[in-house]
Design brief:
Number of strands: 6
Number of helices: 15
Largest sheet: 2 strands, antiparallel
Strand order of the largest sheet: 1-2
Order of helices and strands: HHHHHHHEEHHEEHHHHHHEE
Strand content: 5-15%
Low-confidence stretches: 256-296
Protein backbone atom coordinates (compact mmCIF):
# COMPACT_ATOMS: atom_id res chain seq x y z
CA UNK A 1 0.00 0.00 0.00
CA UNK A 2 2.78 2.43 0.95
CA UNK A 3 4.57 2.11 -2.38
CA UNK A 4 1.62 1.70 -4.72
CA UNK A 5 2.70 2.12 -8.34
CA UNK A 6 0.65 2.28 -11.55
CA UNK A 7 0.01 -1.08 -13.21
CA UNK A 8 1.04 -1.93 -16.77
CA UNK A 9 -1.97 0.00 -18.05
CA UNK A 10 -0.88 3.14 -16.18
CA UNK A 11 -3.66 2.91 -13.57
CA UNK A 12 -3.54 2.77 -9.77
CA UNK A 13 -5.40 0.17 -7.73
CA UNK A 14 -7.95 2.46 -6.10
CA UNK A 15 -9.11 -0.30 -3.78
CA UNK A 16 -5.61 -0.63 -2.34
CA UNK A 17 -5.33 3.14 -2.02
CA UNK A 18 -8.52 3.25 0.03
CA UNK A 19 -6.77 1.12 2.69
CA UNK A 20 -4.25 3.84 3.57
CA UNK A 21 -6.22 5.30 6.55
CA UNK A 22 -6.77 1.80 7.94
CA UNK A 23 -3.10 0.91 7.52
CA UNK A 24 -2.09 4.05 9.41
CA UNK A 25 -4.43 3.15 12.26
CA UNK A 26 -3.03 -0.39 12.42
CA UNK A 27 0.53 0.86 12.21
CA UNK A 28 -0.04 3.05 15.25
CA UNK A 29 -2.05 0.45 17.18
CA UNK A 30 0.52 -2.32 16.60
CA UNK A 31 3.45 0.03 17.22
CA UNK A 32 5.07 -0.87 13.89
CA UNK A 33 6.71 2.52 13.31
CA UNK A 34 8.53 5.24 15.16
CA UNK A 35 6.20 7.81 16.71
CA UNK A 36 7.24 10.53 14.27
CA UNK A 37 6.31 8.27 11.33
CA UNK A 38 2.63 8.30 12.38
CA UNK A 39 1.83 4.70 11.64
CA UNK A 40 3.85 4.75 8.42
CA UNK A 41 2.24 7.84 6.95
CA UNK A 42 5.56 9.71 7.01
CA UNK A 43 7.78 6.71 6.31
CA UNK A 44 9.80 7.08 3.12
CA UNK A 45 9.78 4.79 0.11
CA UNK A 46 12.76 3.67 -1.96
CA UNK A 47 13.10 7.05 -3.69
CA UNK A 48 12.62 9.16 -0.55
CA UNK A 49 8.96 10.20 -0.73
CA UNK A 50 6.53 9.74 2.15
CA UNK A 51 2.92 8.62 1.72
CA UNK A 52 1.48 12.16 1.81
CA UNK A 53 3.86 13.25 -0.93
CA UNK A 54 3.00 10.22 -3.04
CA UNK A 55 -0.71 10.86 -2.65
CA UNK A 56 -0.25 14.52 -3.62
CA UNK A 57 1.66 13.67 -6.79
CA UNK A 58 -0.22 10.60 -8.04
CA UNK A 59 -2.14 12.41 -10.76
CA UNK A 60 1.25 13.46 -12.17
CA UNK A 61 2.60 9.90 -12.41
CA UNK A 62 0.04 8.55 -14.84
CA UNK A 63 1.20 7.09 -18.14
CA UNK A 64 -1.33 5.72 -20.61
CA UNK A 65 -4.17 7.02 -18.40
CA UNK A 66 -2.92 10.62 -18.46
CA UNK A 67 -5.43 11.65 -21.13
CA UNK A 68 -8.34 9.77 -19.54
CA UNK A 69 -10.07 12.66 -17.78
CA UNK A 70 -12.75 10.45 -16.23
CA UNK A 71 -10.13 8.21 -14.63
CA UNK A 72 -8.05 11.21 -13.49
CA UNK A 73 -11.08 12.69 -11.74
CA UNK A 74 -11.83 9.34 -10.11
CA UNK A 75 -8.25 9.10 -8.85
CA UNK A 76 -8.34 12.68 -7.59
CA UNK A 77 -11.59 12.06 -5.70
CA UNK A 78 -10.13 8.92 -4.11
CA UNK A 79 -7.01 10.80 -2.94
CA UNK A 80 -9.14 13.65 -1.63
CA UNK A 81 -11.30 11.23 0.36
CA UNK A 82 -8.20 9.57 1.86
CA UNK A 83 -6.75 12.93 2.91
CA UNK A 84 -10.00 14.00 4.51
CA UNK A 85 -10.13 10.77 6.51
CA UNK A 86 -6.54 11.22 7.63
CA UNK A 87 -7.24 14.81 8.67
CA UNK A 88 -10.37 13.78 10.58
CA UNK A 89 -8.32 11.22 12.52
CA UNK A 90 -5.65 13.88 13.14
CA UNK A 91 -2.98 11.86 11.36
CA UNK A 92 -2.68 14.48 8.65
CA UNK A 93 -1.82 17.89 10.09
CA UNK A 94 -1.85 21.41 8.69
CA UNK A 95 1.92 21.79 9.15
CA UNK A 96 2.46 18.81 6.84
CA UNK A 97 1.36 20.85 3.83
CA UNK A 98 4.31 23.24 4.07
CA UNK A 99 6.69 20.87 5.84
CA UNK A 100 6.52 18.25 3.11
CA UNK A 101 5.86 20.51 0.12
CA UNK A 102 2.46 18.96 -0.60
CA UNK A 103 1.08 21.89 -2.58
CA UNK A 104 4.33 21.86 -4.55
CA UNK A 105 3.74 18.16 -5.28
CA UNK A 106 0.22 18.83 -6.52
CA UNK A 107 1.43 21.68 -8.74
CA UNK A 108 4.23 19.55 -10.23
CA UNK A 109 1.76 17.85 -12.55
CA UNK A 110 3.11 16.78 -15.94
CA UNK A 111 -0.27 15.81 -17.40
CA UNK A 112 -2.96 17.98 -18.98
CA UNK A 113 -5.26 17.17 -16.08
CA UNK A 114 -4.82 19.54 -13.15
CA UNK A 115 -6.19 18.24 -9.79
CA UNK A 116 -8.11 21.42 -9.01
CA UNK A 117 -10.11 19.98 -6.10
CA UNK A 118 -7.01 18.58 -4.40
CA UNK A 119 -5.19 21.86 -4.98
CA UNK A 120 -8.00 23.87 -3.39
CA UNK A 121 -8.41 21.44 -0.48
CA UNK A 122 -4.79 21.98 0.56
CA UNK A 123 -4.87 25.69 -0.22
CA UNK A 124 -8.06 26.35 1.74
CA UNK A 125 -6.52 24.59 4.73
CA UNK A 126 -3.24 26.52 4.52
CA UNK A 127 -3.11 29.47 2.05
CA UNK A 128 0.46 30.22 3.15
CA UNK A 129 1.52 27.06 1.32
CA UNK A 130 1.73 29.26 -1.78
CA UNK A 131 4.88 30.73 -0.23
CA UNK A 132 6.43 27.36 0.67
CA UNK A 133 9.77 26.82 -1.03
CA UNK A 134 10.59 23.16 -1.46
CA UNK A 135 12.97 21.03 -3.51
CA UNK A 136 11.01 17.94 -4.52
CA UNK A 137 14.01 16.24 -6.11
CA UNK A 138 15.92 16.31 -2.81
CA UNK A 139 12.96 16.02 -0.42
CA UNK A 140 13.91 19.13 1.52
CA UNK A 141 13.15 22.81 1.86
CA UNK A 142 14.54 24.60 -1.16
CA UNK A 143 13.85 27.65 -3.27
CA UNK A 144 11.08 26.60 -5.64
CA UNK A 145 7.56 27.90 -5.07
CA UNK A 146 4.39 26.06 -6.14
CA UNK A 147 4.03 28.44 -9.10
CA UNK A 148 7.47 27.37 -10.36
CA UNK A 149 6.38 23.75 -10.31
CA UNK A 150 3.07 24.56 -12.01
CA UNK A 151 4.90 25.31 -15.26
CA UNK A 152 5.64 21.57 -15.55
CA UNK A 153 2.00 20.94 -16.44
CA UNK A 154 1.22 19.89 -20.00
CA UNK A 155 -1.66 22.38 -20.05
CA UNK A 156 -1.74 26.04 -19.07
CA UNK A 157 -4.74 25.73 -16.74
CA UNK A 158 -2.68 24.47 -13.80
CA UNK A 159 -0.28 27.39 -14.07
CA UNK A 160 -3.15 29.89 -14.31
CA UNK A 161 -4.97 28.36 -11.33
CA UNK A 162 -1.88 28.70 -9.14
CA UNK A 163 -1.27 32.25 -10.39
CA UNK A 164 -4.89 33.31 -9.76
CA UNK A 165 -4.79 32.05 -6.18
CA UNK A 166 -1.41 33.65 -5.62
CA UNK A 167 -2.73 36.96 -6.94
CA UNK A 168 -5.80 36.67 -4.76
CA UNK A 169 -3.88 35.90 -1.56
CA UNK A 170 -0.70 37.89 -2.24
CA UNK A 171 -1.61 40.73 -4.61
CA UNK A 172 1.41 42.78 -3.55
CA UNK A 173 3.59 39.90 -4.83
CA UNK A 174 1.63 39.58 -8.08
CA UNK A 175 1.07 35.94 -7.24
CA UNK A 176 4.86 35.28 -7.20
CA UNK A 177 4.80 34.97 -11.00
CA UNK A 178 7.87 37.25 -11.22
CA UNK A 179 9.79 35.73 -8.31
CA UNK A 180 13.02 33.84 -8.83
CA UNK A 181 13.79 30.37 -7.65
CA UNK A 182 17.22 29.02 -6.82
CA UNK A 183 18.85 25.63 -6.85
CA UNK A 184 20.51 24.61 -3.59
CA UNK A 185 23.90 25.34 -5.13
CA UNK A 186 22.83 28.97 -5.64
CA UNK A 187 22.11 28.78 -9.37
CA UNK A 188 19.12 30.89 -10.39
CA UNK A 189 16.08 29.03 -11.67
CA UNK A 190 14.10 31.02 -14.22
CA UNK A 191 11.03 32.76 -12.90
CA UNK A 192 7.62 31.19 -13.47
CA UNK A 193 6.66 33.77 -16.11
CA UNK A 194 9.70 32.92 -18.23
CA UNK A 195 9.18 29.18 -17.89
CA UNK A 196 5.49 29.47 -18.73
CA UNK A 197 6.33 31.51 -21.84
CA UNK A 198 8.66 28.74 -23.01
CA UNK A 199 6.04 26.08 -22.38
CA UNK A 200 2.82 27.72 -23.55
CA UNK A 201 3.96 30.62 -25.73
CA UNK A 202 4.87 34.23 -24.94
CA UNK A 203 1.75 35.83 -26.40
CA UNK A 204 -0.71 33.51 -24.65
CA UNK A 205 0.97 33.68 -21.24
CA UNK A 206 1.47 37.45 -21.38
CA UNK A 207 -2.11 38.04 -22.41
CA UNK A 208 -3.52 35.79 -19.69
CA UNK A 209 -1.34 37.29 -16.93
CA UNK A 210 -1.96 40.88 -17.98
CA UNK A 211 -5.68 40.29 -18.11
CA UNK A 212 -5.78 38.93 -14.56
CA UNK A 213 -3.62 41.72 -13.19
CA UNK A 214 -5.74 44.39 -14.85
CA UNK A 215 -9.03 42.69 -13.99
CA UNK A 216 -8.29 42.67 -10.26
CA UNK A 217 -5.70 45.35 -9.54
CA UNK A 218 -4.17 46.15 -6.18
CA UNK A 219 -6.13 48.93 -4.54
CA UNK A 220 -3.22 50.44 -2.62
CA UNK A 221 -0.82 51.50 -5.37
CA UNK A 222 1.81 53.01 -3.08
CA UNK A 223 2.07 49.85 -1.03
CA UNK A 224 2.41 47.75 -4.16
CA UNK A 225 5.20 49.88 -5.64
CA UNK A 226 7.10 49.84 -2.35
CA UNK A 227 6.73 46.06 -2.16
CA UNK A 228 8.15 45.60 -5.64
CA UNK A 229 11.06 47.95 -4.95
CA UNK A 230 11.92 46.29 -1.63
CA UNK A 231 11.44 42.66 -2.64
CA UNK A 232 14.81 41.28 -3.77
CA UNK A 233 13.14 38.21 -5.29
CA UNK A 234 10.95 40.30 -7.58
CA UNK A 235 12.37 40.05 -11.10
CA UNK A 236 11.85 43.60 -12.40
CA UNK A 237 13.21 42.82 -15.86
CA UNK A 238 10.42 40.34 -16.45
CA UNK A 239 7.80 42.76 -15.19
CA UNK A 240 9.18 45.26 -17.67
CA UNK A 241 9.05 42.72 -20.49
CA UNK A 242 5.46 41.90 -19.62
CA UNK A 243 4.39 45.53 -19.68
CA UNK A 244 6.18 46.06 -22.98
CA UNK A 245 3.52 43.86 -24.52
CA UNK A 246 0.87 46.37 -23.41
CA UNK A 247 2.30 49.72 -22.21
CA UNK A 248 -1.16 51.04 -21.37
CA UNK A 249 -1.65 48.21 -18.88
CA UNK A 250 0.46 49.95 -16.26
CA UNK A 251 -1.88 52.95 -16.43
CA UNK A 252 -4.93 50.76 -15.99
CA UNK A 253 -3.18 48.79 -13.26
CA UNK A 254 -2.18 51.85 -11.29
CA UNK A 255 -5.43 53.67 -11.91
CA UNK A 256 -6.98 52.80 -8.55
CA UNK A 257 -10.24 54.36 -7.41
CA UNK A 258 -13.81 53.71 -8.40
CA UNK A 259 -13.10 52.83 -12.03
CA UNK A 260 -11.29 49.69 -10.96
CA UNK A 261 -14.07 48.75 -8.60
CA UNK A 262 -16.62 49.03 -11.35
CA UNK A 263 -14.57 46.92 -13.77
CA UNK A 264 -13.86 43.91 -11.60
CA UNK A 265 -15.51 41.65 -9.11
CA UNK A 266 -14.78 42.00 -5.41
CA UNK A 267 -11.08 41.41 -4.84
CA UNK A 268 -10.28 40.48 -1.28
CA UNK A 269 -7.73 38.62 0.76
CA UNK A 270 -10.49 37.29 2.95
CA UNK A 271 -8.57 34.13 3.82
CA UNK A 272 -7.18 36.00 6.82
CA UNK A 273 -10.66 36.27 8.29
CA UNK A 274 -11.84 32.88 7.09
CA UNK A 275 -14.11 34.47 4.50
CA UNK A 276 -13.30 34.98 0.88
CA UNK A 277 -15.31 35.96 -2.15
CA UNK A 278 -14.42 34.27 -5.42
CA UNK A 279 -13.67 36.43 -8.41
CA UNK A 280 -14.00 35.61 -12.07
CA UNK A 281 -10.69 36.29 -13.82
CA UNK A 282 -12.05 35.50 -17.28
CA UNK A 283 -15.38 37.24 -17.11
CA UNK A 284 -15.05 39.61 -20.06
CA UNK A 285 -13.12 37.71 -22.70
CA UNK A 286 -13.70 36.23 -26.11
CA UNK A 287 -12.82 32.58 -26.51
CA UNK A 288 -10.38 31.95 -29.32
CA UNK A 289 -9.55 28.26 -29.33
CA UNK A 290 -7.61 27.55 -26.17
CA UNK A 291 -6.69 31.19 -25.61
CA UNK A 292 -8.53 34.22 -24.36
CA UNK A 293 -8.73 37.50 -26.15
CA UNK A 294 -8.91 40.39 -23.71
CA UNK A 295 -11.73 42.88 -24.11
CA UNK A 296 -11.14 46.16 -22.30
Amino acid sequence: VWQTMPDEDGAYDLQSLSLVPLMVELGIELDQFEEEERGGLLSRDSVGNNVLQNLSSMTSDLDSKKDDEEYCELLENSILDIMKQLREKKHFKKDDIRGHGLLNCVCCNKTKFFPEKLFRFLLDWDPTALTARYNLSKFENGSWLPIHYSTNSAGIQGFLSVFEEGLLNYPEKLGFVFHEGQENDGRIREIAYQEACKKYGVDLVTREILYRIVKCPVTNTDTFLLSVAADKEFHLDSLYLLLQKDPAAILRFLGGGSNNESNCDTFTTGRKTGERKRWNPVGNVRNEGNAHSIVY
